[in-house]
Write a structure and sequence with these properties.
- The protein is an alpha/beta fold and 601 residues long.
- The protein has a domain at 46-161 and 242-289: 2-enoyl-CoA Hydratase, Chain A, domain 1 (Alpha-Beta Complex).
- It is 45% helix and 17% strand.
- It contains 22 helices and 20 strands.
- Strands 8, 11, 13, 14, 15, 17, 18 and 19 form an eight-stranded mixed β-sheet that branches. Strands 6-4-3-2-1-7 form a six-stranded parallel β-sheet. Strands 5-16 form a two-stranded antiparallel ribbon.
- Helix 5 links the parallel strand 3 (127-130) and strand 4 (149-152).
- Helix 17 (458-483) crosses helix 18 (487-493).
- It is globular and about 85 Å long.
């Protein structure tokens, strides 16, 4: 019987290999065909369509393969800003249409995107926003409200019901698994340990999270009030009363201007823009339009007298690169970051560096390695930091040496604190799996960082507390050095507490409020470059969809192969092993991390 199962597995494996080879060849040919296309042609009197859906990465590859397959992102934040800046000047673009499809950008990114829309609107060209049949959330509406007119599809959802931050807690799950978590931290607000040790928010954590959510709520109300001419109290009342859940509600309360079916939008353009008929309406999407030349759009180009390098530091900080497919969590390793900073230093044309940080932090040593790279570069040229959605904990650690730190008012930053979580799996191993361990040690602390199978001794916990406290003191020292403060001053605003960009500016953790474009202009000024005489170069070059796919293909195929060969009992055991491995990766690791994400529901 085992022979037949092995034969079947081998046959399926060979078939899988053949399919993979054919698929890779097909993708390669498809990429070649797509890359041979020239820049898209922009028709005259065109409507630029911007679909507000999914995530908006900071710096994504715009490879033709991802566009053909639809597996890549529609545009990144750079492409969004560039496209709208060109559209404002391009005589071929008559109007811009936003289509809400559930955008997944963070709040600081949304603020930058809204600013780009407002700058476009200053050109005097029409800006329309529609919901489509998918409806509209508060994130969508923050952008849509910048439009001249907002149209909603009949009977679609139109949510205006306030904001909520939600986090899962795993204390009960760990109890069911037979695992005990012990937290060691420096900072009373350092809340990253709470999902493992509590079933709800602590008082300190609830306080800081409430302030963050209220800051978002206040910014949202102010933006909508300014665009729609509604008092902020009225907007608050609408959210509190639950009176806006549909397109019809939005029109009735003045949040939208009318009801229009998706297939009738071209007819609306005929009436609004003066086309002869709906057939005359030409459209081009932002993803294609952003590939066109800025000079063709009527924008002046640089004469090449200098460059500003924008080095992206995006994702959770780890010690080495990890494989991931589009849509998975992003990771930030010191190797590529150091190489990008070195490349900027070695380039004679680069006069200043802007480090774009969008990271919740992570491991300590990699954060320190990147801080050192920033400090080395700052000795040779101006280095400014532009904070995106999140630049907290380890993200702030490596930002500290910058000459200037800029952040959006809704950036989440600070979280100056350190923690570690120690797991005791004695009950799981001994009582539930029947596995016991024995040890031979050369010293009492030889098993100091092992995944334990017995309660954490007091002496070991004290050693961990000393280590975490010492690391926290290093964190305070680096921030104090970079910000011109004393360690006591940093400690008073540290303690693991997360601040919005606006609150951080008031506490000297941030120098300037503004987005990436503001920071780049400031860097050019610091470098003595004329406002129209420099180029912007992004580092490191993002990997294409094809490169990322091929990197992870081997791991995916190996997992599939193992799944075919394993029995049901073996698969069950492997699932438990993977859960254990996730805990082991976090066990006894000093971290500077803030793991929360503000979500709207």
């Amino acid at each position: 019987m085992r022979f037949l199962s092995n034969l079947l597995a081998s046959t399926l494996g060979a078939l899988l290999a053949l399919i993979v080879v054919v698929l890779v060849g097909f993708l390669f040919l498809l990429a070649l065909a797509a890359s041979s296309d020239s820049a898209p042609t922009v028709p005259s009197d065109a409507v630029l369509e911007v679909r507000l859906g999914g995530p908006v990465p900071e710096n994504a590859a715009t490879d033709p393969l991802s566009q053909v397959l639809g597996g890549g992102v529609r545009y990144d934040l750079r492409g969004f800003r560039k496209g709208l800046r060109m559209a404002a000047q391009d005589d071929r673009i008559s109007a811009v249409r936003l289509k809400a499809e559930g955008i997944g950008a963070g709040w600081a990114q949304l603020q930058e995107m809204r600013s780009a829309l407002q700058r476009y609107a200053e050109s005097g060209k029409p800006l329309y926003a529609t919901t489509g049949e998918t409806g509209m959330t508060e994130k969508d509406y923050l952008l849509a409200s910048a439009a001249d007119s907002v149209f909603a599809s009949p009977e679609s959802l139109f949510m205006l019901n306030g904001f909520m931050l939600q986090s899962p807690f795993l204390e009960g799950t760990l109890q069911k698994l037979g695992v005990e978590a012990t937290a060691v931290r420096a900072g009373e607000f350092k809340s990253a340990v709470e999902p493992f040790t509590r079933s709800n928010f602590s008082q300190q954590n609830e306080r800081q999270l409430s302030e963050i959510v209220e800051a978002i709520n206040s910014a949202f109300k102010s933006a909508v009030s300014a665009s729609r001419g509604l008092p902020t109290d009225s907007i608050e009342s609408l959210a509190d009363s639950g009176r806006v859940f549909s397109a019809e509600d939005a029109v009735r309360t003045g949040l939208a201007d009318g009801l229009v079916y998706e297939n009738e939008m071209d007819s609306l353009f005929v009436n609004q823009l003066g086309y002869d008929s709906a057939d005359d309406v030409n459209a081009i999407n932002l993803q294609e339009y952003a590939r066109t030349s800025a000079s063709d759009a009527g924008l002046s180009t640089s004469d090449g007298n200098g460059e500003i390098a924008v080095v992206y530091g995006t994702g959770q900080i780890v010690n080495e690169e990890r494989e991931s497919l589009p849509g998975n969590a992003e990771f930030l390793a010191p190797g590529p970051f150091r190489e990008a900073m070195q490349e900027a230093r070695d380039d004679e044309d680069v006069r200043a560096v802007v480090v774009r940080v969008n990271s919740p932090g992570g491991q300590i040593a990699p954060s320190e390695a990147m801080r050192h790279a920033v400090k080395l570069t700052a000795r040779e040229m101006p280095v400014l930091v532009s904070m995106g959605n999140t630049a907290a904990s380890g993200g702030y650690w490596f930002s500290a040496p910058a000459d200037t730190i800029a952040a959006d008012p809704l950036t989440l930053t600070g979280s100056i604190g350190v923690f570690a979580v120690l797991f005791n799996g004695q009950e799981m191993f001994n009582d539930r799996l029947g596995i016991t361990f024995d040890e031979v040690l050369t010293s009492p602390y030889a098993d100091f960082s092992n995944f334990t199978t017995e309660p954490i001794p007091n002496e070991e916990r004290q050693l961990w507390q000393r280590f975490i406290s010492d690391t926290y003191q290093s964190f305070l020292k680096h921030v104090a050095e970079g910000r011109g403060m004393t360690t006591a001053e940093v400690d008073s605003i540290g303690q693991g507490r997360v601040w919005t960009g606006q609150a951080a500016e008031a506490r000297n953790l941030v120098d300037v409020l503004g987005g990436l474009q503001t920071t780049v202009k400031l860097a050019a000024k610091r470098a003595g470059l004329d406002s129209a005489a420099y180029d912007v170069h992004a580092l490191p070059e993002p990997k294409s969809f094809f490169e990322r796919y091929m990197e992870s293909l081997s791991a995916r195929a190996s997992a599939l192969w193992r799944g075919w060969r394993l029995s049901e009992a073996e698969r069950t055991f492997e699932q438990h092993a993977r859960r254990l491995q996730r805990l082991r990766r976090m066990h006894a690791k000093p971290l500077a991390l803030w793991p929360y994400d503000v979500t709207v529901q």
